[in-house]
Amino acid sequence: MYPAQFQYYTPKNIGEASELLRKHSGESKVLAGGMSLIPVLKLRLTRFEHIVDISGIKGLADISEEKGHIRIGALATHGEVEASGLIRKKAFLMSETASHIGDEQVRNMGTIGGGLCHADPSGDWGSALIAMRGTVQVSSSDGSREIRADDFFVDSFTPALGEDEILSSVTIPVYGERSSGTYAKLERRAGDFAVLGAAVQLKVDEQDVCKYVGIGLTSLGMTNIRSESAEKALIGKELTPESIADAAESSRDDMDPLDDAIRGSAEYKKEVGSEYVKRALLEAMNRLRGGTK
Amino acid sequence: MISSQRKKRKEVSVQKIDLEFELNGVPVEADVEPRSLLAFFLRDHLGVKGIHVGCDTTNCGACTVLMDGKSVKSCTVLAARANGTKVTTVEGISSNGNLSALQESFARNHALQCGYCTPGFLMSSLYLLGKNPHPSEEEIRKGLAGNLCMCTGYLNIIKAVKEASSSNFGSEAGNRNNKNSGGS
User: Fold this and answer.
1) Does A106 contact B12 at a Cβ distance shorter than 8 Å?
2) At B72, phi and psi to the nearest 5?
3) B146: closest CA of chain A, how far (Å)
């Protein structure tokens, strides 16, 4: 299978890439790792006259720590995020989420920025970013701005990006001592799209009282969504199996999954979804107690 | 009817992209259309038939090659992306007609039935062992999750990788990735 014919550009910086997108407004698309875009082009689910390949832009794949945050360049591959010692140590949820994406070959090509901009409700990165209350930085030839994870996903496959804007990096807060995170994902077989998933990030005080709770959901709404009800149910409470079970139960209120002939009915997904929220929270609790992230 | 309709369509001049890259240690120059995919370009234009295309939808991994030492599914990579890289296919892992230790181990362990998926499994295994010379069974399973064998010969494939890994294979994989020819 081949994509429809297109013109191909390899800009050297974001300004150049943004100019190309503006010039070919409505007919152009950014290509990063291509693990979502190339399949949809090949299947002719979509076509673009102009493909702007940003993979050659220097400095867009760096992973660094700055002022209590970790910054991940948009072109960092899932595999690079998974393998980063810094992320493993200080933002384990991101590392674990990366390890659940696709397969080894896909993780070697696919990028965090590309995955986020694809804005597939069954994408994994969005849930992790929501759980960690991360932000993305987007740039165009006019300048840069920041978008919070909660504001980034407008609708299925629709990120909050202007036509000439390019996601340049992702920043996530470092939660530090007595914090842990985990991603629980259900898939029918290795490498398939998520049936559903739950990303959680916790931080507790010395009495085990939840000081921070972040819960992002995969395939349980029209975009990656936050489970506000479950977060509210747990914040300020002592972290116990009982408080976790209560929070997981209330997470159903936030779920609005699609009925799906392949991956299950909406009812099924809500049932299993709240179970996965519970499992993720329990695992995060166990990691806190075991002293690992 | 169809052909007359086709003639009416807007004439698009097809862009050509100049490529220079290294294929199994040999420099290659070519030009490709933007939409050309690495798997088909290598098979159809360069005659590298060790790349198999199974599903053509990024699932089966039969088209796996190494690009700058990393395993990728070449049916889902634009040929243009190969520019400036080093590409290794299954043709590049044996030397002078001698099978590599990994290939020998596949043969010894009956790790292939029809053999269609084998080049992809070899390339993924090579990548895995280069990164992790002594993987556990779980690590092998995870490392090979992007490759499908429709004969379902997975257990022997895992055995073959395990055996290759216990025979000092790691250093050999590293050497091959670095294009050093010393030792065999």
Assistant:
1) no
2) -140, 155
3) 5
